[in-house]
Amino acid sequence: MLRTLFIVPALLFVSMVSASTSNAMDSKYFSRNVTFTMLKDKVVLIERNRPATVTMDEWPQLIFLSADGRRTVSEFALEIGRHYKDGMPPGLLEQTRDLMSRLSDRGYIVLHDKARPLPYYLATPIERQDMKRSRKLMEEDGFIDKSSK
Questions:
Q1: Among residues 34, 58, 50, which one has the least CA distance to residue 125?
Q2: Which of 7, 56, 101, 133 is the most buried (most CB within 10 A)?
Q3: Residue extents of the structural domains in the chain
Q4: pTM for the model
């Protein structure tokens, strides 16, 4: 079992993840599930069902920004592993699985069986969006209620 820490401001998760139970996640694609804005070089997530924002440390932030719905968990870990001089470090895939699981549990990303592109309102930071277009698409997709402001 691998013990890892995942820190989101005001939250601390300690997880025990078995590599054998997480392998089912490797073939899953991952997509953003909340809107976001950029504050300097930090991602700020906009909570969907409550008036709150969340910032993340670098590693979960990298996962969130990479959650474009077009690559699997294992493809992402291999991509990251290529940046290390001596190859993928031991435990990188397990740590990636754990962080993705935590981001999914919080509703910040979703895991799915097939590749799918992100909708406009999740693909781009909110400050670069046409807000009328975003709202219309969110309502059409059921991402927000038509009655919400």
A1: 34
A2: 56
A3: 2-118
A4: 0.81
